[in-house]
Amino acid sequence: MRLLCALGLFLALLHVTSCLRIGAFNIQNFGPKKSKDVFVMKTIKEIVLRYDIILIQGLQDEGLQVYQSLMDLVNKNIPESSPDDFSKIYSEPLPLGSSILKLMSHKERYLFLYRHQKVSVKGSFQYTDKGFERPPFVVKFSSKQTAVKEFVLIPIHTKPGKAVKEIDALVDVVAAAKLKWTNNNIMVLGDFNAGSTHVKGDDWKKIRLFNNNDFHWLIDNGVDTTVAKSSDTHDRIVVTTEMEKGVVAGSAAVFDFREEYSLKDQAKKVSDHFPVEVELKPQVEPEPKPEPEPEPEPEPEPEPEPEPEPEA
């Protein structure tokens, strides 16, 4: 009985460690000032280590010093050959959407950190069509350990006052990704600003991403994704039908680091958002075919009885 229990525990742990966990975290005003706060950076590190891929939004880092400080902290004492080592891919600052500020660059970057022994980047492109304050930076990932071998992540951090139009326009970004890579395994994630403050009841009728049956919203309305006292579902994860097949059912959730780390009011120093997360199903190894049983050896034929000798 103990052996069976131990085997069951091992298989359960194997399942957990085989799933690929993806997160999206809007770190409020993540710039040089915040990167010098030891408590904040330590907390962000703990959150990053929870994931195999994490999208970070709110990175205001034109010179990449903030990103480098985070990478050094996350990978401290971890050899590059380790499966726990993180690599990165990030977007470049783009002109602001405002016509008055076109000559200025947006300070925010999209940053993906990922465990390069578990996943690899197969391609990326910057979406440049109009319609976004922070245009999505689209990345295709590959993993040998997930049921879905290649998948596309589309990050978004909408402008609050234009949330409805920007969320609707994400359908066009999905179409561009499908056209480029002929891949229907697509996930859109990030700060949609889709709470009731910016997206009201009738607004949902205008959003193709919400009304098209090919898209599935894994973080529902009414789920609080913010640190503030008000309850708003700003942060979302949306997947295509094909991608949903590779998602662990019920794994999409909000990671409440305030409660997890017992931070109380200190959580606001880190961000005004909680991360949202989801897990991808592990690759199912085919069961080994049983070896055929050896055929029984034929019984030896009985030796013939000796003929009687003739009488003299």
Automatic annotation (TrEMBL):
InterPro entries: DNase_I (IPR016202), Endo/exonu/phosph_ase_sf (IPR036691), Endo/exonuclease/phosphatase (IPR005135). Residues 293-312 have a biased composition (Acidic residues). Residues 24-273 form the Endonuclease/exonuclease/phosphatase domain. GO terms for cellular component: nucleus. Keywords: Endonuclease, Hydrolase, Nuclease, Signal. The active site is at 108, 157. Residues 1-19 form the signal peptide. Residues 274-292 have a biased composition (Basic and acidic residues). This is Deoxyribonuclease.
